[in-house]
Design a protein that fits this description.
Blueprint (H helix, E strand, L loop, with lengths): L2 H20 L1 H4 L3 H6 L6 H11 L3 H14 L3 H4 L8 H16 L4 H9 L3 H33 L7 H49 L2 H7 L25 H18 L3 H8 L4 H15 L2 H14 L10 H9 L4 H37 L5 H25 L3 H25 L5 H21 L5 H22 L5 H11 L6 H4 L4 H36 L3 H26 L5
Length: 575
């Protein structure tokens, strides 16, 4: 790269450090300010930050490689996680359920759901441990990708590049807490938007798509999947493509209904009320749509380079090195670093909240002062990063660690997280036991059966967790009825709550049922709305106009449905 490009990247990194120092005083008032911004952050800042936190260099490299190999069908592979389809569920009802709780972490929520006794404490501890395990896995995944990417542009090894970026992110995140995270994410969202628009326009205007059709594999521009596909070396796990896509979608639906944890849930705990939860979700999804024309643009430009792309996972940096001019190259590399930083800082801040609030304050030093809690927050961030870096060093590839996180580790927590909202009889012991079995199963699969197909890992781990959870729940006493009544009255969830709802008066039950029915109908518009919003610009970039018109029509119908079923009622809802 040219000196101008290095100057742009250096300026961007310095701005992050300055912002971290600027927000240090406000974040240091207490752990509520440090981890939730005092619950006074505007919804549009939380939404833009949420979008930025879902993007990172590692994921962008991986998804670009999938689109490069599979074409538009790469989108279907990323139903496993990269499409973030869980946001459709957060938009309609799961997001507002979080904000109504008034807690700081998912683990603390367990006492809101299961009570302050042994049940709630057990569920809280296992929830915190499971989220921390997922977090260190994500940091390892981040470490592998950012090192691999930056070593192409900077005169350092992948290890040195990764350690440099992690040190900077750890510094400003530790200083400034969630306030620093969301406002630096706002800047990073702007950089990401610039990169997306530039790459999309370049691919749209410079590639000869008639010639591209002769270079690309057959069916490269089609979204309809084949049941079986002959994949190149390294991608044989996707040969049974049809069944893989079915399991990806089912896993995402269950995960969406159960709600993701860690940094995604943190945005909703920080929201002021129901209305802000809904609006931040809508903005989050809308901004995420910009990712997909960028991805297909990189894949198209990569195909136009032919044999100059030596490895699918390197298609992104290869395109930037060979096709992007000086100055713009620095801006785009800075935007991709921004994407990485936004995910990393959110992950660190959220994970530290679990160590401090749910383990240190709960079990180690319940009488800790405000200063001691802040010092524990700083130390927790460093410890989490150190463990994550170790995982990154021993991981062989980006796809291997991402596959394990999304399809095995998540599978171990997916059923307990799902049933906690919808089944009154699930108690804290059952949740904890199911989560524990899931974590052990995911780790055992990684160590003993690393070559297991993704859908096989998903089935094995999730079914083991489900069976253990149900058996333990039915073998132990139910949660106290007063705790359940308080949870149900405040959250107003969908599902099997008849035993508890009869404690409420008739008018309350009627209002809750009306809201639940409306939310269920709205969900059937929200899921296709998000998918159509993402795919319409993808087909525009590759000039496939028939598909553009089809998905644009779906988008219009779904938007209309959401307006009447969701947005019109959003204004009247209060936390």
């Amino acid at each position: 790269m040219h000196a101008i490009d290095y100057l742009i990247i250096f300026t961007y990194l310095c701005s992050l450090v300055i912002l971290g120092i600027y927000f240090r005083k406000r974040a240091g008032r207490g752990i509520n300010d440090y981890f939730l911004g005092g619950r006074n952050i505007p919804w549009w800042v939380l939404g833009a930050s949420g979008m930025a936190s879902n993007l990172d260099i590692t994921g962008t490299m991986l998804i670009s490689s999938l689109f490069y190999v599979f074409g538009v069908k790469g989108f279907l592979v990323e139903l496993r996680g990269g499409v973030v389809l869980v946001m459709a569920f957060m938009l309609v009802f799961v997001g507002k359920w979080h904000s109504r709780s008034g807690v700081m972490t998912v683990a603390e929520w367990m006492e809101f759901r299961f009570g302050n006794g042994r049940q709630g404490e057990t569920a809280r501890l296992l929830s915190a441990l499971s989220i921390l395990l997922g977090t260190v896995g994500m940091i390892g995944y981040f470490f592998v990708g950012i090192g691999k990417f930056l070593s192409i542009f900077l005169p350092f090894s992948p290890l040195v590049c990764a350690l440099l970026m992690i040190t900077i992110a750890l510094f400003y995140t530790t200083l400034s807490g969630l306030l620093g995270v969301v406002y630096t994410d706002l800047i990073q969202a702007g950089l990401i938007g610039f990169a997306t628009i530039f790459i999309s326009i370049k691919a749209f205007t410079t590639v000869d798509f008639a010639t591209l059709q002769t270079i690309a594999p057959t069916g490269w521009s089609d979204i309809i999947p084949s049941w079986r596909m002959n994949m190149p070396a390294g991608y044989e796990m996707y040969n049974l493509f049809g069944i893989s896509v079915i399991f990806y979608f089912l896993k995402t639906v269950i995960e969406g209904l159960g709600a993701p944890g860690a940094y995604m849930a943190q945005r909703y705990f920080a929201a002021k009320n129901d209305r802000d939860s809904g609006l931040l979700s809508a903005l989050w999804i809308f901004l995420l749509a910009f990712r997909w024309p960028f991805i297909i643009g990189i894949a198209v430009l990569g195909l136009s380079l032919g044999a100059q792309v030596t490895e699918p996972e390197l298609v992104l940096p290869t395109v930037l090195v060979l096709l992007i001019p000086t100055g713009l190259k620095g801006l785009i590399v800075a935007s991709l670093i921004a994407a990485a930083m936004s995910t990393f800082d959110s992950t660190i801040n959220a994970a530290a909240s679990y160590l401090v609030k749910d383990i240190y304050l709960k079990y180690i030093k319940p009488e800790a002062t405000g200063k001691q809690l802040m010092r524990a927050s700083y130390a927790s961030s460093g410890l989490i990063v150190a463990i994550g870096v170790f995982i990154g060093v021993v991981s062989p590839s980006i796809n291997s660690i991402w596959s394990w996180i999304t399809m095995s580790l998540v599978a171990g927590m997916i059923m307990p997280n799902f049933l906690r909202w919808y089944w009154w009889r699930l108690n804290g012991y059952g949740f904890a036991f199911g989560t524990g079995i899931g974590m052990i199963g995911a780790i055992a699969q990684r160590l003993l059966l690393p070559s297991l197909h993704e859908w096989q890992a998903l089935l094995t781990v999730s079914i083991s967790s489900l069976l253990g959870m149900i058996i333990c729940t039915l073998a132990t006493p139910p949660t106290d009825a007063r705790t359940l009544e308080h949870f149900y009255r405040k959250t107003r969830p969908i599902g099997f709550w008849r035993q508890i709802s009869k404690m409420l008066d008739v008018d309350q039950i009627r209002r809750i049922k009306a809201e639940n029915r409306r939310d269920i109908f709205a969900l059937f518009f929200a899921v296709p709305w998000q998918i159509a919003l993402f795919l319409t610009p993808v087909f525009m970039v590759i000039h496939k106009w028939n598909s553009v018109f089809v998905f644009a029509a779906v988008l219009l119908i779904a938007t209309t449905g959401l307006y009447f079923l969701w947005f019109k009622h959003l204004i009247d809802e209060k936390a």
